[in-house]
Structure formats: structure tokens, C-alpha cells
């Protein structure tokens, strides 16, 4: 008995896999795929397609803000519902630093960080270490030490800055750095309180970029002071 073997007759699970991999490469390619045949369009309810969809940051920003892009906002909402970590991370950054709900933003950021998203972990670390209480600072420091040991700090800063940059400056909620409330609390530490001077020397005196992994405070033996230096870099990512 003859059985059709064309692409349209592939099993639904195969089409779902194709759509998921296409979405991970380009959401525009996904749209083109869905227009190609009914079998591709029938994958639109599958979570995996939205979970791994790769959306350019400018598209996500435009869809979120423009009243003309209800379809785009619906797509983003479905991505968040399906657990798309990158979309959730960007939304959390927007809530925390660009005028949304800080409480919702921090809750989402913790969820994304718990799934192993290193830039979300970096963001949580910085926010916790900026707080005044010892418990929060210590939790943030522990995350910072893990990221530092993994050599992930530079890429985390670059990705975070990519999300913040390009937004309207007047909309940004700048994190506040209290020079009197340092992570390093040891008065016996010879480096304590000198991270601002090191930052200014590295950035302006030697012309090193703030994300240069060969500069900064990597040579400082005190991990608490290195964390203080990283907080200075974090605040200046909003410049």
C-alpha cells in the first residue's frame, strides 16, 4: 500500500523538533517555516518551540514597547510561560532597572539564576552585595566567588551591558553604590577602600576597558575587595 512520504507527512514530533531547532536559530526563520505548510503551523502550541526561541534583543525591546506589536508581545508572553531563560532574563532586567516592578523582576531573576543562567546569577550577586545587610552581602559574595572561579565575570558583564545599553538613559534605575558600605569589612585589609582609585587608574590612566579580563583587581588577594571592585564595574555598566 502506497504511503505518502513528503515532508508534510512527517510525524508531528518530528515537525516539533524541526520547529524547535529553527526557532533556536532565528525567530524569523520560524515564521517562514510556519508559512510553508500546515504541519509546521501545527507546532505553534508546543512549549519547546517557545522555550528555545532566539529573539534579537532589539526585536524583544520593540515588541515590548510598541502598541503596534500585540502579536510580538503575545509571542514573548508565551516564551516566558514556556521557560525561555533569555527572554525571562531580559524581562527581569527591564523590571529591575527600566521602570517595571522590582519585586517581580527580582523574583524572575532568581528563577532564571536557579536554572544556571550565569548572567542572571551575576545580576543577583551584584544586587545582593549592594544591599546593606550582612546576610545578603554574604549570599551575593558566594555567587560572585563561583562565577569568578569559572572565569565567567567578563562575559557576564558584556551580556548585561548589551541588554542595558540602547535603552533610554532617563528610564534607567541606576543602582546605588554606598562607598561606606563595603563588602570588605576588615579594617586590617590594606586594600580596603582603595577599589575606586584602582578603577579610575585602570579605566582612565591606562585606558583599559572596564571589561578587560587582564586588568582590574584580579591581582588583589582579598576576595571581598575584588567584589567591591566588581560592584564599581557593575554600576558603570549603566553609563
Question: Please, could you describe this protein's structure?
Answer:
61% of the residues lie in helices and 0% in strands. With 239 residues, it is mainly alpha-helical. The protein is elongated and about 75 Å long. It starts with 11 loop residues before the first helix and ends with a helix. The model has no long low-confidence stretch (mean pLDDT 83).
Element layout with pairings:
Elements: H1 12-25, H2 27-36, H3 38-41, H4 47-51, H5 57-65, H6 70-81, H7 85-97, H8 102-114, H9 118-130, H10 134-149, H11 153-164, H12 195-205, H13 223-236
Helix pairs in contact: 1-2, 7-8, 8-9, 9-10, 9-11, 12-13
Tally of individual helices:
13
* Rg of Cα set: 22 Å
Question: Beta-sheet strand percentage?
Answer: under 5%
DSSP summary, beta strand count: 0
| CA distance, first residue to last residue | 69 Å
Derived from helix and strand composition plus strand pairing, the structural class reads mainly alpha
Share of helix among residues?
55-70%
Q: How much is the average pLDDT?
A: 83
Largest sheet report: none
- What is the helix/strand order? HHHHHHHHHHHHH
> What is the approximate shape?
elongated
Residue stretches low in confidence (pLDDT < 50, at least 5 long) are none
Task: List descriptors.
239 residues; mainly alpha; 13 helices; 61% helix
Summarize the structure.
With 239 residues, the protein is an all-alpha fold. The chain contains 13 helices and no strands.
